[in-house]
Amino acid sequence: MKVKNILVSQPKPVDLDKSPYGELCKKFNLKIDFHKFIKIEEVTAQEFRQAKGTFQGHTAVILTSRHAVDHFFRIAKELRYEIPDSTKYFCISESTAYYLQKYVQYRKRKIFHGKQNFIDLMEVLKKHTDEKFLVPSSDIHKQTMFQLLDKEKIQYNKAVIYKTVASNLKSLDINGFDMIIFFSPAGIKSLLKNFPEYEQGESLIAAFGPTTAKAVKEAGLRLNIPAPTKSAPSMTMAIEEFLINMAKENRKNGRKQ
């Protein structure tokens, strides 16, 4: 089998040619298409109230993405909830922290951040165990995040303020791709919702992260390229490694014939 067409279940990079995917295209003469398999929808203030959600009684907010930032301030506005100036913001990364400037005066707020992931942020949170945290999130979230909070006995409440739903992919010729790349269990659910009769056949499936890999297997599909690995910490590196090994195997079989 030769890989020619790849489908990535994410938006197209702003500058494809300068991205790792652009490098893959040039190096292996690939055609790569990008389509968002999932989209974000807001939870309305009414839905939030019906779920008995509240912003009251919290001294700090944990923000794990720009989506969380946008929808936290949107819901606050819809609820006519005035966020106290004393509220502390704990962001998963520096870029998310800077994104807060869209809503608050950065220098006048108590803003903390991790390096890049939630484990890093936990080191910061452990220094503020007296706070009562609000964790704005999607209806689909990583359980490991809350397990870490529970382990450290950090006081928090979840606030589901946006939803992750399947995009409409019916216009795609899903069987026309030699490889499909997934980055979340929600992407797998979207595939099966849009194409309930989908059969993998000889197509290859790549998955980033253990929960995505688990979702692939639970869906009865075959996982060909897991990432990250020790030798391939990124998805594009894992694909490159796989394609190089495949080319070696093809040459080897060619010599035998």
Question: Would you write up a description of this structure?
Answer:
By secondary structure, the chain is α/β, with parallel strands linked by helices. It has two domains: 5-37 and 167-256, Rossmann fold (3-Layer(aba) Sandwich), CATH 3.40.50; 41-164, Rossmann fold, CATH 3.40.50.10090. Helix content is 36%, strand content 21%. The strands form two sheets. Strands 3-8-7-4-5-6 form a six-stranded mixed β-sheet. Strands 2-1-9-10-11 form a five-stranded parallel β-sheet, with helices on both faces. Helix 7 packs parallel to helix 8. The longest helix has 22 residues, at 235-256. It is elongated and about 70 Å long. The two termini are 16 Å apart. The model has no long low-confidence stretch (mean pLDDT 92).
Compose a concise summary of this entry.
The protein is built from nine helices and eleven strands. The protein has helices at residues 20-28, 45-50, 66-78, 94-99, 118-125, 143-151, 185-194, 210-218, 235-256; strands at 5-8, 31-34, 38-42, 60-63, 88-91, 110-113, 133-138, 156-166, 179-182, 204-208, 225-227. The strands form two sheets. It has a six-stranded mixed sheet.
